[in-house]
């Protein structure tokens, strides 16, 4: 039996042209200083894509259009499992300039993704994106 709690989380691989948005976790949240794709927990009964659109709007103040599923992976973090579903998305409007959860936002090419200190749950998606 698996007694480890699983938390469902969604993240957006937001692209604008050939660049991908990456976000550094702020000092006020766990795994501070690590990089991730924007997103957060799915509320009970909430559709994952609806949760992702809501979370990006709350964190970054911008709208996105989800264009497809990239990956779903389970990662043990502490005493729980993070089930992270990553979706490809495009901006609706201007690029975000600030975040409620992150202290830095960067737009980078896929070839630059390996140069960041990633939160562990995001690593499987990073591997897919850097593989081309």
UniProtKB/TrEMBL annotation:
Q: Which reaction does it catalyse?
A: 8-oxo-dGTP + H2O = 8-oxo-dGMP + diphosphate + H(+)
Keyword list (alphabetical) reads: DNA damage, DNA repair, DNA replication, Hydrolase, Magnesium, Metal-binding, Mutator protein
Q: What class of enzyme is it?
A: hydrolase
Tell me the domain of life: Bacteria
Listed GO molecular functions? hydrolase activity
- State the organism's lineage: Bacteria, Bacillati, Actinomycetota, Actinomycetes, Micrococcales
| Protein name per the record | 8-oxo-dGTP diphosphatase
Q: Which InterPro entries match?
A: MutT-like, Nudix_hydrolase, NUDIX_hydrolase-like_dom_sf, NUDIX_hydrolase_dom
The text of the family note is:
Belongs to the Nudix hydrolase family.
């Amino acid at each position: 039996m698996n007694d480890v709690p699983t938390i469902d989380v969604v993240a957006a691989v937001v692209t604008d042209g050939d660049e991908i948005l990456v976000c550094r976790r702020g000092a006020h949240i766990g795994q501070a200083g690590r990089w991730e794709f924007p997103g957060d927990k799915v509320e009970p009964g909430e559709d994952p894509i609806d949760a992702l659109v809501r979370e990006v709007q709350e964190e970054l103040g911008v709208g996105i259009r989800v264009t497809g599923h990239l990956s779903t992976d389970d990662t043990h973090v502490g005493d729980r499992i993070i089930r992270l579903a990553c979706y490809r998305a495009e901006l609706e409007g201007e690029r975000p300039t600030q975040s409620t959860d992150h202290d830095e936002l960067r737009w980078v090419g896929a070839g630059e993704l390996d140069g960041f200190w990633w939160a562990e749950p995001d690593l499987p998606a990073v591997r897919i994106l850097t593989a081309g």
